[in-house]
Amino acid sequence: MKWGFFGYVLKTFFLLFLSLALLRLQFLLVNHTYLTWNLLDLWMGLRFDLSLVGYLAFFTLPLYYLISWIKDRKIHNTLFFILSTLLFLLCLLPECWDLVYFQYTLKRSSFDLYRFFTSGEDQQMLGPMLRRFWYVPFLCVAWLGAFFWHMRLLQRRMDSEGNHSRYSFGFAMAFALSFLMARNSFGPKPLGVLDATVFGDPARSQLRLNSPFVVLKTLHNAPLPDRQYMHDEASKRWFNPHFSYHSSNPEKKPNVVFIILESFGTQQLGKSSNQIAITPFLDSLLHQDSNTVACQGLANGKTSIECLPALFSGIPSLLEVPFVLSNFSTNRLNAFPALAQSKGYQTLFFHGAEAGSMRFQATAHQLGFQHTFFKHDLHASSDLTGSWGYHDEVVFDAMIHTLNTTAPPFLSAIFTLSSHEPYDIPQQRRNKYPQLTREQAAYRYTDDCLRTFFNRSKRQKWYKNTVFVLTADHTPVHLSSKGYRFRYYYEVPIAVVNLPTRANAPQEHLEIVPWLIKQWNWDVNWYGYGNGDNPDKIRYLNGIYHVWNPHYHLQFNEQTAQWKVVYATNTDTNSLDRAKKRFLALLQRYRHDLRYNALGM
Q: pTM above the 0.85 mark?
């Protein structure tokens, strides 16, 4: 029996899906010595293959439908063959490329890497690479030959005639289905590259992905600029993200709990309204507790999604998009939870929203958190559910119960959410402070939750040997322009509670992990951009790089290659020149290590 044209279109997409699965096996065979994997990864990879086929179908089904109306059999078959071959090439070429390039970067190639090779000086590497990996062009030809053979089989049986009203209905249904396949999610966010890190060990994510999916998902991201400001050896003298920590003292392995407060800038602390203190517990903890070291620290970015990579892996926000949404989101990281796990720690992450919110679940797995707890893992009354998820008291309570049954040492992190707009805290808590605005009441609610958490924790057997690191992800959206200084955009509290020895608190998110490593005498190598020896703070905002410390504030517009001195307490041009060179060396190294997947190496 002859198939109708619509049936052959469906068979073509099934052929693409099958080819992606087989190309993953080829990828595994060629690169197995560079991969950590198990059989489950091959199964989970089908989800990403299905998503890619959904995207391809979504954009090309209208073209196939137009072809179905062409009566001339020769033109009809030729167009069908050309379109199907183009789709296959979109799958085949990135996969064949990564047979080679994966061995250099140990990650699937994003779109900007192709742009980098075709427009930069590195295109001269293509010839030597093709000579070394001579078998890759032959594999491409073999795959194309097999595809052409299957297409000829289809075309011989294809009927260009048919009931076009029936085709119309079938194409409409297939078009709707392709949208669902492409999203591969009924949540607010479609399937993304970083989701490959969720299904088990993040180091195995590269086998779950397929290369054309990664290219498609990074197509809209701005390419990483390719500017060489100095020789590599010179840049290492000005800045090096590698640190080796050694101590003759025995290592300490206390428990550690990170408390990340949503939108708690230092400008919001120490305030009252109608004679009601808004953050009384936090104020006393930061300024009166003898077991706490604290400072007006700095967040790394202006959004929650930028916090976790900075806090736990020392990754700055120097891109147009947050790191976890960039082309480099699946790069290998030298992350603190994974490092702690290698020291025998249990690692846990708690958040009251859905697992896909802000890509937190995928990011937490990539950083090395073994156990994650999100809204679907927690159980509480519906009265304690807000716009974003369970309110803070539910999550703090869940963390205490879980830690009571967790063998020490452990590293736990909680990311609060009740102080996020629209500030819809539980009604009974709102009624407690009718004199406060919704926002002020939300801050007071989280502050009360903190007080309850610490009071309950002090009664637990693990408290005495536990260090608490308390900070905020970023400042609130609004800031008063009165007495404005640039650092106010990033100024958040940083406090270390229950520390047995006195020390100055770390000054920014990037510095917290190196600071803890030194305090605990860990003998480790660390990669990060929170170098305590660098006197400058660096942020990227609205196309401008800001480099500042108490003595000066510099702005750098890379597009025009112009520097601007916002202020300087003296006219020592040498110190300003050194600051410029330190920054350019850091920026150059950061981009190099992103492109070549060398974060942590």
A: no
